[in-house]
Amino acid sequence: MTTGHTTEECLDAEHEDEHEVTEATAERHGRTLADVQRLLKARGIHAYTVHTVGLKLFGDGRPYPLGKRERHAPELVAYCDTGWAVATVTVGRRSGCYLVSVRDSTDLQVVRNPQQVADLILSTCPKVAA
User: Fold this and answer.
1) I need a labelling partner for 58 at 20 to 30 A (CA). Which of 1, 12, 44, 118 fits?
2) What's the start-to-end Cα distance of the chain, in Å?
3) Strand partners, 46
4) CB proximity list for 36: less than 8 A, separation 6 or greater
5) How far is Cα of residue 30 from the mean position of the Cα atoms in its chain?
6) What does the pLDDT look like over 25-67, one tens digit per residue?
7) How far apart are CA 120 and CA 122, in angstroms?
8) Where is average pLDDT lowest: 13-27, 52-66, 93-107, 111-125?
9) How far is Cα of residue 110 from the mean position of the Cα atoms in its chain?
10) Confidence label for 101 from pLDDT (cuts 50, 70 and 90)
11) Three-state secondary structure along 16-81?
């Protein structure tokens, strides 16, 4: 029994959906990241939230091709006065924890408290931490 899809197509579809979230989840994660952004702003660290929306267009010959809108999880990017990004923060899809990627580290750090996220980011910014 076949489903009409090749293994490669199924793997591609699974990979594409890996970062896609619902509109409600993206809004909830955005509010969660805003808590961290407020803490950083109070301490002089600049940060902005990146919201990514993708649109897949279907070229089936219609004058206005129909498409599929994909919402990706928002990311908070923090940077110091030098202009270099020092950390990227996302919210885990299932755990709801903060996932922090700091400059000069290949490991993703899992943090539960927004204050701890701010402290971690502050420790990577030399001007503020000194």
Assistant:
1) 1
2) 65
3) 79
4) 47, 76, 89, 98, 114, 117, 118
5) 9
6) 889 999 999 999 999 999 989 999 999 888 777 776 666 666 7
7) 5
8) 13-27
9) 14
10) very high
11) HCCCEECHHHHHHHHHHHHHHHHHHHHCCCEEEEECCEEEEECCCCCCCCCEEEEEECCEEEEECC
Query: Nearest CA to 91 among 9, 29, 6, 25?
Result: 29
Tokens of 63: 């004058």
- What pLDDT sits at residue 56? 76
Dist CA 99 CA 88 (whole Å): 8
Amino acid at 5: H
pTM listed for this prediction? 0.72
- Residue recorded with tokens 């498409």: 67
Lookup result for tokens 């010959």: 61
- 120 membership: H or E segment, kind and range: helix 114-124
C-alpha to C-alpha distance for 17 and 22, rounded to whole angstroms = 11
